[in-house]
Amino acid sequence: MNFYIMGVLGHIDHGKTTLTKALTGVDTDQLKEEKQRKISIELGFAPIQFQNNYQASIIDIPGHEKFIKKAIAGASGLDLAILVVAANEGIMYQTKEHLEIISLLSVQRIIVVVTKMDLVNQKELEIITINIKNFLKDTRFSGAKVVHVDGISYRGVSELKHRVSKELEKIPSKDINTPLRMPIDQVFTLRGYGTVTRGTLYDGKITSGQLVTILPGNLRVKVKEMQYHNQITKNAYAGQRVALNISGVNKENIKRGQVIVDSDYYISTQTIDVKIKTVNSLRYKKIKQHEHIMIHIGTTNSTGKIIFFDRNSIEFLPNEEIYCQIRLDNPIVAKKGDSLILRKLSPTETFAGGIILQTQTNKYPFGKETIKKLVRLDNDPLLEQLISLLEEHMMMTEKQLAQYIGVSEHYISKLLSKCVASGVLTSVKGQYTAQTVMNQLRSLVLNKLRNYHRQHPLKYGIPKAELISSLSELYPPNLILNILINLDNDKLICFRGPNVCIKNFRPEFPSETKKEMIKVIRNLEKQGLEPAPVLEILSQSSLNNCVIKDFLFYIEKEGVVERLNDKYVVHYKNIKESIYLLKKYYPYFFTVQDAKKILKLSRKYLIPFLEHLDRKKVTTQESSKRVWIE
Q1: Please, which pLDDT band fits residue 447 given cuts at 50, 70 and 90?
Q2: 74: which of 61, 192, 288, 551 fits an S-S bond (Cβ 3.0–4.6 Å)?
Q3: Which of helix, strand or coil describes residue 262?
Q4: Which domains does the chain have, with CATH numbers?
Q5: Which InterPro entries is this protein grouped with (predicted)?
Q6: Quick check: 612 and 569 in contact, CB under 8 A?
């Protein structure tokens, strides 16, 4: 079974409600005021069944200019529009405005129905038909079928049903495997039932008993019961009009424009990137930078500021395409590809329509680069958009990519699997990145290590934590760590304790200071076990402070010297010779006095030396003597 949404639009009193009743048998004017005034005030709904297993919900859209907000809400998400023109009046102001609305909302197919045909003669009917075709000639609906109907006598209704059926056959069936999205257009209470919401399922499916969320507001509710055109049903699918009896929330907490969802695929946003197209004719020709406007998306409308990046105002040309951003005063729920209409606040007038390019977005600078970015979002094929997103955000989850691009997780999952298999993308701990990002980061890490080795030739490498921290402003830490592991596996780098270095790198004295460093080492060797404070020795050299720090670390790490304490270091040969002398005369144990006699050292140098032997586990202290461990 395929489900579709049709809208009946046109000027007030052109017979839309009568036509809807002729097609469906349902009088969509339910309100007392509608009966009294004989005009539609609220959106009306009625089901229609076709023999080719198609079902459609018809929305009877008010034609009065005061109800233009409701007309926009009703026209959002239509699969097929029926534009009504009364034979005795012809094309009127709201005819033009409603055609403009469905054009701006990207409705793909229309049928024009000339109603009240019994009020004119054949010649007049032919003239109105020619006028309609001329009216549509310069629009994207040029060539639309024109059907003549009289809703009272039912003349032409069968032909219209046949034509509608043929048009619906050309429309692809909806994917019910996408995440649920149902914009709310009516909220009320029923005695004995409680809160009821109505709307059209734009995406996915819904089941009686299901827990769902209302956004914005993050209200968690349960679907107690569900009706499809007054018939209780357990399941509803994209393209159907449904009423949901929900629990967990009062009517006062819900309003038209909120959206029922079943996952966190959809989120609330207040900033959207858009491509808009100006209308054919305007009374007021200018929209200024940061001007407050009204935005209509689905069943919601909100005020907000329009932000241009290549101009300071719109000086109108008909059908001009403009890339811009809208910063809304209130959060909305939408996705990439949704249609919208923009209207001036004062005086009220529709000035543009368009599509959403991105819903999770940031503020951008004024200029050509921002326009190029928005053009890419609009024009690039799906794979290029995917790579572009990952090059900008570095790493994203499957869900985030689906949200940004505006496709289902099921679809993006298949695409990501293909891209990973072909090497275009890489998966890292449940997130994805572009191979171009990986290559860029690999080169950056290797260059950073090479530069570090040049600047610190005596260090064993850069501390891993320091390396990750230095890159984390540009790249996620998980991605950096993954690159380090890959480079290690590829034998391009290696880990030395807490440090990272280029494979086969060995610290060595830099040529410009090598002689001075060797001289310092020789001086330390000459001083035996009675050295001057190490900082004093180094300060007398020509080495600068930065080099001194690296040099001291290096000669300790390499075992050239051994540190007795914060003040003194001793050449390893002097340590070795002293141990040899002590063992020669005292092969099992010795006292401080024994060591002093053999080594001829004052306590100032002797005690630090002996404590050093204890720390090295060469000796161990037992009472007043030291015993050799080996």
Answers
A1: very high
A2: 61
A3: coil
A4: 2-169 (3.40.50.300), 181-261 (2.40.30.10), 268-372 (2.40.30.10), 380-508 (1.10.10.10), 515-628 (1.10.10.10)
A5: Beta-barrel_SelB, EF-Tu_GTPase, EFTu-like_2, Elong_fac_SelB-wing-hlx_typ-2, P-loop_NTPase, SelB_WHD4, Small_GTP-bd, T_Tr_GTP-bd_dom
A6: no
Number of CB atoms found within 10 A of residue 476's CB: 17
Residue 135 CB partners (closer than 8 Å, separation 6+)? 91
Structure tokens at 147: 């059907």
pLDDT (tens digit, 9 = 90+) per residue, 395-406? 999 888 888 887
Question: What is the DSSP track for 375-415?
Answer: HHHHHS-HHHHHHHHHHHHS-B-HHHHHHHHT--HHHHHHH
**Residues contacting residue 612 through CB under 8 Å, at least 6 positions apart:** 562, 563, 564, 575
- On whether the CB atoms of residues 464 and 471 are closer than 8 A, the answer is no
Pairing relation of β-strands 181-190 and 259-261? antiparallel
Residue 584: band (very low, low, confident or very high) from pLDDT cuts 50, 70, 90: very high
Query: Average pLDDT of 337-360?
Result: 87
Q: Is 540 exposed, middle or buried (0-12, 13-18, 19+ CB in 10 A)?
A: exposed
Q: Three-class SS of residue 369?
A: helix
Q: Are 172 and 141 in contact (CB under 8 A)?
A: no
Burial class (CB in 10 A: 0-12, 13-18, 19+), 444: middle
Which neighbouring-strand residues pair with 229?
none
DSSP letter string over 97-146? HHHHHHHHTT---EEEEEE-GGGS-HHHHHHHHHHHHHHHHTSTTTT-EE
Q: 329 in helix, strand or coil?
A: strand
CA 464 vs CA 479, 483, 523: distances in Å: 14, 12, 35
Whole-prediction pTM: 0.71
Spatial contact of 355 and 106, defined as CB atoms under 8 Å apart = yes
| Phi, then psi, of 522 in degrees rounded to 5 | -65, -40
The stretches of 138-276 forming alpha helices (DSSP H) are 157-169
- The per-residue DSSP string of 565-594 comes to SSS-EEEHHHHHHHHHHHHHH-SSEEEHHH
Both structure tokens of 559? 């075992």
> How far apart are the C-alpha atoms of 84 and 97, rounded to whole Å?
12
- List beta partners, residue 200: 241
pLDDT of residue 557: 81
The Cα–Cα gap between 369 and 578 comes to 72
Q: What is the spatial distance between Cα 251 and Cα 1, in angstroms, rounded to a whole number? A: 33
3-state class (DSSP) for residue 564:
coil
* pLDDT for 392 beyond 70: yes
How much is the pLDDT for 522? 85
